[in-house]
Design a protein that fits this description.
Elements: H1 2-5, H2 28-36, H3 53-66, H4 78-89, H5 95-103
Helix pairs in contact: 2-4, 3-4
């Protein structure tokens, strides 16, 4: 996929559809606080209404173009938060890996 899209096949790899991503370089608490504010609880559901405007716009772009999903856009999935975190912090993420796993 990386060859077809002519994009690098490097960066953080993580994938889990149902639970939080397990990756040594990824801290879920830091991610949730960055996206939802300092008082956010990591154990609660993540809703787009609690994101600021810029993060909400980024979530919509990810949820429609990078990791498309059926249904509403009210809730932020773990993978969407993981992807947003890497884009906002400018940390490398393996996009071909995300797309392939999302398609399976």
């Amino acid at each position: 996929l990386a060859t077809i899209l002519k994009i690098p096949n490097e960066g953080a790899r993580g994938w889990n559809q149902r639970n939080c991503i397990i990756n040594n370089e990824f801290n879920k608490e830091e991610c949730v606080r960055m996206l939802f504010g300092e008082n956010a609880d990591c154990m609660q559901r993540m809703y787009t209404r609690n994101l600021n405007l810029h993060h909400r716009f980024l979530h919509r772009a990810i949820a429609t173009h990078v990791l498309p999903k059926a249904g509403g856009f009210d809730e932020v999935t773990h993978m969407e938060a993981y992807t947003m975190y890497h884009l906002i912090t400018r940390k490398r993420i393996n996009v071909p890996n995300l797309i392939i796993h999302h398609m399976l």
